[in-house]
# Entry
Amino acid sequence: MNYTTIMDDNEVKQNIFKCSRCGLCQGVCPIYEEIKNENSTARGKLMQIWGIKKGDLKLNRKILQSLDLCLNCEKCKLNCPSGVDTTGVFHSEKKLPLSGKILTSDFIFKLKLSSLKFFSFFKKTPQYDKNSKILYFEGCIAKELKNKFEISGIKVKNGNFLCCGMPYLTKGRADIYEKIVEHNERIIDKSEMVIFDCATCLSAVKDYPFKNPKNREKLVFYTDFYKDFNLQFKKNLKVTYHMPCHLKSAGKNLEEIEKILNSIKNVNYTRLENPQNCCGFGGDFFIRHPKIAFSLSIKKGLDIINTKADVVLTSCPTCLWSLNFSLFVCKILYGYKKIPTTLDMSEFLNKCEIITKNLPRSETQKNIEKELVKM
# Structure
């Protein structure tokens, strides 16, 4: 089985031909909002790629820089009325020299992740139930930080998956990505359900070119376990929520999250002015383009502070780091005496007391109910 998602030259051209040049991508692109440069938009990038294909342009450093100006938030793809797979084209057109392949190798990626061990040196590796029928997809950051994933009253088993593959796909490393997908599908194929707590991981795995398409139906986000639980927090608390970009591309929406938060007793949820605006980190985008990332991060931080919330929640470890950074910098720059605490929503929900379990009627939840009965 070939797990390639990289487009061939004909598929790239077909997607470019789909583009109607309407410019809607310009209105949703966080990069364009910052630098107001047409070459940073999906439309601008597609036109540059088409110019190279026709021979009117030559691939040079300037074009490579504009192609690199991407947070991989997929907002252009999700909002394209013509259905252009913009990010798919960009991934396919990343031609790496030998030095680039070395810098995006599996060894270098793992070396970068290993730096996180500093923050978890004294923590124990989480232990999960070896007999559970529900597999947990432990993301790279969660693994290095030794964060334990829990849902009250539900046992999960660590599926021992590899990285979701997105860090490699976005760098044009289809060779590594294909091996990851093949390994992970073998595990999913033997499972009955896989639960995620990271929006990026869920989005990446849902996009796998599965050999068995039914495996996609086994993928569940942790919030699905809470949709019809009656929850209560131990004290009155005001919360807000930052929606990770990849949560929408994974098929989840903000309203689902808000319904859960609004139903929790003693919790007062306040929506951000721009809850779906990118936090600016975009994997390692903040390293390559710190000025743009810093600006986006500060805007997000101020949006959060303006809600006067006690806690800001999110569902992505990278976003969580970004929110910590932005709130800290806002505190220093603007002299705020108090800033909201950041917390992963799965951790927050686990702190809530489940009063009753009104199991729902959706297919996903019916499957969950079956699994709970077996356990």
About this structure: The longest helix spans residues 317-334. The two ends are 34 Å apart (CA to CA). The CA atoms of residues 149 and 217 lie 21 Å apart.
